[in-house]
Amino acid sequence: MKIFIDTADLDEIRELASWGVIDGVTTNPTLVKRSGRSFKEIIDEIFTIVDGSISLEAVSTKADDIVKEARKLSKIHKNVAVKIPMNPEGLKAVKILSKEGIETNVTLIFSANQALLAAKAGATYVSPFIGRLDDIGQEGMQIIEEIMDIFNNYDIETQVIVASIRHPIHVIEAGRLGAHIVTIPPSVIRKMVSHSLTDKGIESFLKDWAKVKK
Ligand code: G3P
To answer: What DSSP string runs through 24-66?
Structure first.
C-alpha cells in the first residue's frame, strides 16, 4: 500500500518524508490556503522533497478550460497528477487528458458508481472521500469495499486513493480492503507512529541501560 501525505504544508512534508514513509502528496485548494504559502512557493519546492506522484487541483469548471489548465499543470513536473472534480465536465476533460498521457486524479468521489465512471473515462486515480461520508452518518469505508470489488472484477487499472482520512483505523481498514493508496493528513501519520507502550518501553530500557556497568 502506498502512503501519500494529504497536505500542502512544506515543513510537514519535509519532516514526514524524512521518515522514509511517503510515496506521494495530494493537495487541494483548501490545503494550499491553509499552508499560508503561495501556490508558486509550493510548486517551487514540493517536487524537490518527494519523488512520487504529486496531485495539484484544477479549478476550472468547463471541460475545455480544465483541459487547458491540466496541460499547464502537467508541464510543471513529470510527477504531476491533475486533480479534477467528479462531474460530467470533469469526465470529458479526463477522457481527453488520458489520451494525451496526462495523469488525472478524479476527486470528490462519494459513490462506487462515480468511481466506475471516472475509471471508464480513463482516470489514473480516483479519490473517494471517506471521512466526509462518515461525517454525514454514511459508512465511508463501504464504498471502498464496493470500488475494490468492481475494479478487481474487471482488472480496472485505475488506482484507488482513499482520501479524507480522519484517524488511524481508517488506514488499517483501507489496507485490509486492498486499496492501492491512502492519502493521510500529517496529524494522522503522527498518531500512526506512536504507541504509549513503545514510549514506556524506550524509557525503561534507557533507565536500565544507565545502570549497567560499561
Ligand atoms: O485530499 C483531500 C481530502 O482528503 C479532503 O479531506 O479532511 O477535507 O475531508 P477532508
So the answer is: EEE--HHHHHHHTS-HHHHHHHHHHH--SEEEEE----SHHHH
